[in-house]
Amino acid sequence: MTDAVTLDGEGPIGEFDEKRAENAVRELLIAVGEDPDREGLRETPARVARAYREIFAGLWQQPEDVLTTTFDLGHDEMVLVKDIEVFSTCEHHLVPFRGVAHVGYIPSANGKITGLSKLARLVDVYARRPQVQERLTTQVADSLMEILEPRGVIVVVECEHMCMSMRGIRKPGAKTITSAVRGQLRDAATRNEAMSLIMAR
Ligand SMILES: Nc1nc2c(ncn2[C@@H]2O[C@H](COP(=O)(O)OP(=O)(O)OP(=O)(O)O)[C@@H](O)[C@H]2O)c(=O)[nH]1
Ligand SMILES: [Zn+2]
């Protein structure tokens, strides 16, 4: 865990205050017309506060905390991990959005690569924050570029937003697809190769 960063969407601006979260949930229950002291709800504020600690755990992590293991394998061709499960929280409505992320990169000329699981961990660092899908996508791409110094990166995220399914416009099944492409993966041929691997089922 590293220190707080205060840029918009870049990290926490204070400590996680579980008691405060608990009080806020209690207030919210009262505000919507519920009785937080009834049997079934008595433990709910504390439970929700603990759940938020987990759901927003990425606020307390930085990409360099998870992209720790790097090896020089001399492999300088594309590495792509697809269908990484994403659970995140829309910062507009504080309801979930979920789907998959595909993360690929072309290692630096000296073949500096990271463990495959680290790419999924990196997605989690940014997904476990109040988010918008576009920022999640660019943060994963930019942090990979910065830390691994690869020749290129591609990140594609496909999610369904509960704020569009269970409320508001109510269009369950609508998928939002965002991508961020950096370096050599901007070249049409390389990008097409990555996209065909991503799209292949
Ligand atoms: N670009 C982007 N928009 C998002 C994301 N998650 C939710 N939104 C949108 O954020 C917008 C917020 O719009 P507002 O008009 O302020 O809120 P609202 O009245 O609740 O909007 P509706 O959802 O249309 O009912 C909505 O259009 C959401 O669909 C995201 O990850 N990226
Ligand atoms: Zn939303």
Automatic annotation (TrEMBL):
Q: Which GO BP annotation is one of this protein's?
A: tetrahydrofolate biosynthetic process
Q: Does the keyword rRNA processing apply?
A: no
Q: What is its EC number?
A: 3.5.4.16
GO MF, one annotated term: zinc ion binding
Matching SUPFAM superfamilies: Tetrahydrobiopterin biosynthesis enzymes-like (SSF55620)
Record text on subunit structure and interactions: Homopolymer.
What is this protein's name? Answer: GTP cyclohydrolase 1
